[in-house]
Amino acid sequence: MLLGAAEVRFSGSKSLEMTQQLSLLASISDGPIAVDWGQAEIIDLPVEDLEQTAIENAQFAGLPSTASKAKNYAAWKKNFADWVYRNQRLELLESPSLDLASNPGESERDFRVRLQLLAREKRDEAVEKLRQKFAPRLTAMEERKRRAEQAVAREAEQASGQKMQTAISFGATLLSSFFGRKTLSLTNLGRATTAVRGVSRSMKESSDVGRAQETVEAVNQQLADLDAQLKSGIEAIQQAGDPQTETLEKVSLKPTRANIDVKLVTLAWVPYWRDAQGQTTPAWQ
Fold this sequence. Notes:
3-stranded antiparallel sheet, alpha+beta, 3 helices, single chain, 2 domains, 4-stranded antiparallel sheet
């Protein structure tokens, strides 16, 4: 038989490129068509696994006369390359969302499982990038919230102290006026003025507390909005196309003549088993 081996490179759009090793066994005859590659059998046999010698006590069939002419092998090699060019196609499935094609011989189920794993990895990576993008803004917002809450506590403490001081001032003024010999004196007038000023400062401190609390509320709202944006982004990533339900595209790749590298076209002795009745069975299958 004639053994033909070639390395075939298939290429398509989107930088899709795959290489396949191809080995064929074709019968040799002395008829009008000595070798018909169209009737050859594709075998899974790396050229490196060929044996140089037969097993002990092996018998050999006769060699067709055409196989003994060296010039025929050059023609058969050319015909082999032509047959590969005309007949070999690589039928694949492609995922538009992940821009990935199936492997030769890979079933749709196995391809979708592989796509699902890849999609999960990409989603996790995208979510992590989104978290890293939001992290500085969230950290800065948390710091603003911390400072605003400190400001509320500080203003509240100052307001409380001012209220206490104002109350004491008012109390001293009233007592002085009540027990004093004169209804109105410069001292009483000064104390009253101080008390009025204390009321004004107390009102200002209370106003400062209110503004500080408003700042905290505003920062909390901004923080909530930012957190909502992050959660929305994560949800959008996680709800992206599901490879299990995605419509896969069918891709048919064919080689160019330049991408067909014929490694070997040679005479090969293939083993057969012969039973007691003289029937033969291929021993390589």
